[in-house]
């Protein structure tokens, strides 16, 4: 550990921010961490900060790239329709008993790039179905949760392919520390200020009650209707268990729920999408009545199409998010091949499941009410990037009048 | 990995033996592995052999010594009465759905040696209670299961304290490979022969239907009554799911269920007992009516006493096992500080829970019937070693007549 290329002081600060800003872990709460094995140094810092904050029991479920690949290379065909349902059911039970949840993102984004797309898709689908009860408790904000990243070797080598491994890891670590605001003297104060800035943006947007957003840019002419009674959010968020958490570290977005039947037009991705080990590049799509009716991609089209065949809701939108083009992650100029980062470099939309919490009274609405107001449901939730400094966005009122929300990728209103 | 002191060919054979001999994993069975993080190289070999054998989904739950210690050093007092019940409940559910179970033993035996005994005891008790439903499915042989070992650095350094780490790991690896019979050309054939030898021993013992065993040696004058309808077992064992497995790799013992009310006299341990990170040395105990009424130990007495306070059954016996003093593990002369090894170097007894399977018709007996026949019940099951080349054992019939079972630690009958 002593000769790791990762700054141990900043790593410890990242662990502290994950617990004190990300989760705001409450006294006595149990904690479930999911993490790649190669992120163990961060898991250990998080575990210590969790116990210092009064955690009950911290349990880490590690994934291992080699074990995952072993399955794709050696398992019988029938394996790919199975999942560890017992584990996900257990997690859901823990969340129902108020355990908090922390995910460390850092898996090799290209892990499954050379595996059979059919097996990848079936394994993902089986996993999504088994995970759904637990995921609904997370996306529904029953409990406080957080995702934070760690610069694993295989991820670092993908992002910085021309550097030796140690240099690549150090560079990715620095980018993560900067984006996560732990390179500052007082990261916790920085996050307080950042949350206030995001809140000013979504407060303005909520006041406008736009009926739709209109996107114009190269290859993009898209209208995204917003769900009835939608609510914009961003940064800190109060979960139903009364704890205010910051689900994503880093985060630069404000976001809400689109109407699953009211999306029309064409849209072009502005960055590649890395999904479960496959890179999907140069996506171009056309929507009619909310449904994606055409899809092209220069790479990974087959995998993306299979994912979008998961269920009826998979070709409809579940999230729309606004990010300034000048955000620190965008300004870094790095393509991270990791949604947590790349989505925060650009305005984006997500296919699939919507967030129940992005509605007025979202905490008390039933699934049926959410659906009736235009919320989408699906086993998947996949963000892809459609913003750049060449994309303008207008907010359109119910009477057809409109006003600028973004110009050349930047906020077009002051708060 | 390339400069590991552990022979990769033998490690792979150990993984193969764990799946093909230890578990005899059936086509389509899911598999749950529990393992220290530092044993990942063996987990990966096992995972590959499992998928090659037709495993459904293999899920590994890793433990991490640093995270465990972090809890003891930083958690609030209330943490030590909690456990990850959700995880154990999930495992039990998986076993009810016929998942197989493989544990890798290799944790640092002294991990908790310097922690507060009260916290250690409370944490163990909370864990045992939460784990009980899953453990009963294992000890009741509802499913095929196996324990196998890996030479982790901290364990190796404890066993070979005067060697550099790499040398210690290589030595412990060799000892594990030899005891697990993977240093031979055809380990699977070796295990078939070994199972046949063990079967000949327990077949003879079952034919005798002894009422009790009488132990005589230095500091030992003990009578251990056997449960009514007890059955001797050893080596391969058929689980209720129809799969024949070898639960322990290595194993040298034949064993059965003592009567929890019929143990009388004094007994001295012949090796130290390593229990959940505490070493308990020079145990001397006296039993009356099956209950341990006196306990002395030169080291670890407080921890052992606390464990034995777990419940009513913790001071009574749940297992009695016979091992030849000349067994390969005993012949190695190594003190492993690990029950899986040390128990197979010596005759031993276990405090606590009995094995339901060590009865005639054990597969169909209810818990109440087992109890009525003298079987013990407890949250704990802790083996300790009472055999040596100075201990003789007689089998005593119901009419008081007796015949030699062991002399100077060796089998005293031919088969």
Sequence-ordered SSE layout with sheet pairings:
2 copies of one chain form a homodimer.
Chain A: H1 8-23, E1 31-36, H2 40-52, E2 58-63, H3 65-74, H4 85-96, E3 100-105, H5 117-139, E4 145-149, H6 153-159, H7 165-179, H8 187-208, E5 212-217, E6 220-226, E7 237-238, E8 244-245, E9 254-256, E10 258-268, E11 273-275, E12 278-280, E13 284-288, E14 291-296, H9 301-308, E15 317-322, H10 328-331, H11 339-342, E16 348-352, H12 367-372, E17 381-385, E18 392-396, E19 402-407, E20 410-411
Parallel strand pairs in A: 1-2, 1-3, 3-4
Antiparallel strand pairs in A: 5-6, 5-18, 6-10, 7-8, 9-15, 10-13, 11-12, 13-14, 15-16, 16-17, 18-19, 19-20
Q: Quick check: average pLDDT of chain A?
A: 95
What is the oligomer described by this structure?
homodimer
Radius of gyration of chain A: 20 Å
Q: Greatest interface and its residue counts?
A: A-B, 43 and 43 residues
Cofactor (chains A, B): Co(2+); Zn(2+); Mg(2+)
Keywords (chains A, B): Aminopeptidase, Hydrolase, Metal-binding, Metalloprotease, Protease
Family (chains A, B): Belongs to the peptidase M29 family.
Protein name (chains A, B): Aminopeptidase
Verbal overview:
The structure is a homodimer of 415-residue chains. Chain A has 415 residues and is α+β, with helices and mostly antiparallel strands. In chain A, 34% of the residues lie in helices and 24% in strands. Chain A has helices spanning 8-23, 40-52, 65-74, 85-96, 117-139, 153-159, 165-179, 187-208, 301-308, 328-331, 339-342, 367-372, and strands spanning 31-36, 58-63, 100-105, 145-149, 212-217, 220-226, 237-238, 244-245, 254-256, 258-268, 273-275, 278-280, 284-288, 291-296, 317-322, 348-352, 381-385, 392-396, 402-407, 410-411. In chain A, the strands form five sheets. Chain A has an eight-stranded antiparallel beta sheet, with no helix packed on it. The first copy, chain A, has a four-stranded parallel beta sheet with strand order 2-1-3-4, with helices on both faces. In chain A, helix 1 (8-23) crosses helix 2, helix 4 (85-96) packs parallel to helix 5 (117-139) and helix 6 (153-159) crosses helix 7. The longest helix of chain A is centred in the N-terminal third of the chain and has 23 residues, at 117-139. Chains A, B: GO terms for molecular function: aminopeptidase activity; metal ion binding; metallopeptidase activity. Chains A, B: Its cofactor is Co(2+); Zn(2+); Mg(2+).
